[in-house]
Design goal:
Elements: H1 6-9, H2 12-30, H3 36-39, H4 43-50, H5 65-78, H6 82-106, H7 111-124, H8 134-154, H9 159-173, H10 177-197, H11 202-225, H12 229-249, H13 255-281, H14 290-312, H15 321-335, H16 341-365, E1 381-382, E2 394-395, H17 404-419, E3 424-427, H18 433-436, H19 463-476, E4 481-485, H20 493-496, E5 504-509, E6 512-517
Parallel strand pairs: 3-4
Antiparallel strand pairs: 1-2, 4-6, 5-6
Helix pairs in contact: 2-6, 2-7, 4-5, 5-6, 6-7, 6-8, 7-15, 7-16, 8-9, 8-10, 8-14, 9-11, 10-14, 13-14, 13-15, 15-16
């Protein structure tokens, strides 16, 4: 059976209901509240691509290239607007939800149970963010790759599945390098020995050809867009690796906090682990069986996501593992003919319902992912007056919880001021201003933070490399004024650290301030 064998495993009614629900729930919650640097992470980047400015070549990025280009496609087809933006993430929620239902049925879970777990999954998947976000894209592309891996392992001669496995892992990597790299590494260690043991070598050849195809596609695309391979390696591979090394040196693990945060994921995974190990030890299944290999692949996904969440210390977004893990546990319980199977199933369903409601309220209703917990989200402001392309957002942000309209009015004023200028650079984490102004804002980086996650800071080995690219942009664009927004908490250090103090003068200008550069310092 293959993941594409729709006639055997899909009831159109279930698919339609799942599609509608997963689309509408993300569409609904995506518009409530914003955390500008995250909510609009790919907004201006996609807009700049449509205007001939490309990541790596024209501005510094450390992840999310593929997401930028997907969003540029949505903007091209549907127009540059908030609705085009959330259409992207809503459709991905549909795709991953339908494929989740598909794979659960393929793994012999009854359709009514698969439907229940999928609805729970769709609530806890993309709506936590609502808008396109690198971590979520990477994670869900990896999850899709694992679904196709399940099908490919079951029918190794279905070569299209192996091609799709490679495809979605590469889509994930070009969305975000981690957790993708962790998952790929662990899965290589699982899948390659499995194929060797069962003496199925053709899939390895298909994987190799698929990689060659994408390498050719990547090199051709870079050549066409004028993206230098060395710049790509520095920005997308080596610099992010240095960030990871820094975070690892400050890593602190608390077992109490870990169990508290992830208990509803840990419960089914631990039970699955012991059930599977017991079956191997008692020789009910063997180590290189399809069943145990599938478990190892899923287990590797969970471990990789745990590690990624602990290292990045971002908001938790992996609660979608709860319904999947419990669904797999229910499948396992049925296989072992457990005496109290029905009672256990009721308990599992209760836990999934409880945890889904718990995290739905916390993350979807209260928008915790956007740092809006304990905020009265009814105090939002509408954004159509700021720009018609932003119509549909119920604006409330963490820094203006009690004065959303004031923030929107401030942004309207800044938009007016910016439209009167020429040949400037704006350093901001309001990552939609480029798309609503009549001038190029020439941002040197997608985001601007001083934690090293955006650009190299003074003691990073790529500090001087970034400095050269910044100077080149300033000279090429003939820019001598670099603007900041007064009320925004972007530290001027992201710019001034690259210059001697006698190279600039700080001047206030209404809601903005700028650094006037001495052009001779750029030589």
């Amino acid at each position: 059976m293959s993941i594409f064998n729709y006639k055997k495993i899909i009831n159109p009614t279930y698919i339609i209901l799942i599609g509608l629900f997963s689309f509408l729930i993300n569409w609904k919650y995506s518009k409530y509240g914003v955390f500008p640097i995250d909510t609009f992470l790919h907004y201006d980047s996609a807009y700049r691509i449509l205007n001939g400015e490309y990541p790596i070549k024209d501005y510094w990025v450390v992840s999310g290239i593929f997401v930028d280009f997907i969003q540029a496609f949505f903007f091209k087809i549907f127009g540059i607007s908030w609705y085009s933006y959330i259409l992207h993430s809503s459709l991905l929620n549909v795709l991953i939800s339908i494929l989740t239902f598909n794979i659960l049925v393929e793994l012999n879970l009854k359709k009514k149970f698969a439907f229940f777990y999928t609805i729970s999954f769709s609530i806890l998947a993309y709506p936590l963010s609502g808008t396109p976000f690198v971590d979520l894209h990477a994670t869900f592309f990896c999850t899709i790759a694992i679904y196709f891996t399940f099908s490919a392992i079951k029918k190794p001669e279905k070569y299209l599945n192996w091609f799709l496995v490679v495809s979605f892992y590469l889509f994930a990597f070009f969305s975000k390098q981690v957790p993708t790299a962790y998952i790929i590494l662990l899965n290589v260690m699982i899948i390659f020995p499995y194929l060797l043991v069962i003496k199925k070598l053709k899939p390895l050849f298909i994987i190799f050809l698929s990689l060659l195809f994408y390498l050719f596609l990547l090199l051709s695309s870079f050549s066409m867009l004028g993206i230098d391979l060395n710049n790509f390696y520095i920005q997308y591979i080596d610099y992010p690796r240095s960030i990871g090394s820094d975070r690892l040196s400050y890593f602190f693990f608390s077992i109490t906090s870990f169990i508290s945060n992830y208990k509803f994921i840990l419960i089914p995974i631990i039970l699955l682990f012991f059930l599977k190990i017991n079956q191997v030890v008692n020789k009910k299944i063997y180590f290189f069986s399809i069943e145990f290999t599938n478990f190892l692949i899923f287990f590797s996904l969970c471990i990789s996501l745990f590690v990624n969440q602990l290292l990045t210390k971002n908001q938790i977004y992996i609660f979608f593992l709860i319904p999947i893990s419990f669904a797999l546990l229910q499948i396992e319980v049925k296989k072992i003919n457990f005496k109290y199977e029905n009672k256990l199933n009721y308990l599992i369903i209760f836990i999934v319902i409880f945890s889904t409601i718990k995290y739905h309220v916390r993350y979807n209703e209260n928008r915790k992912f956007h740092e809006l917990s304990n905020t009265n989200t009814s105090k939002y402001a509408k954004t159509a007056s700021l720009d018609k392309s932003l119509k549909g957002i119920f604006w409330i942000s963490p820094h203006y919880k009690e004065s959303s309209q004031q923030e929107v009015e401030m942004l309207k004023n800044i938009k007016i001021q910016l439209n009167k200028k020429r040949n400037i650079m704006l350093i901001t984490n309001y990552l939609f201003l480029d798309s609503i102004t009549s001038i190029q804002l020439n941002s040197p980086s997608r985001t601007h933070t001083v934690d090293g996650a955006s650009i190299p800071m003074r003691y990073n080995k790529y500090f001087n490399y970034y400095k050269k690219t910044l100077y080149k942009k300033l000279k090429t664009k003939k820019i001598n004024k670099v603007y900041f927004i007064k009320s925004e908490k972007v530290k001027s250090k992201v710019f001034t650290q690259f210059f001697l103090k006698n190279c600039y003068e700080q001047i206030d200008e209404g809601a903005l301030y700028f650094f006037k550069l001495n052009q001779s310092c750029l030589d």
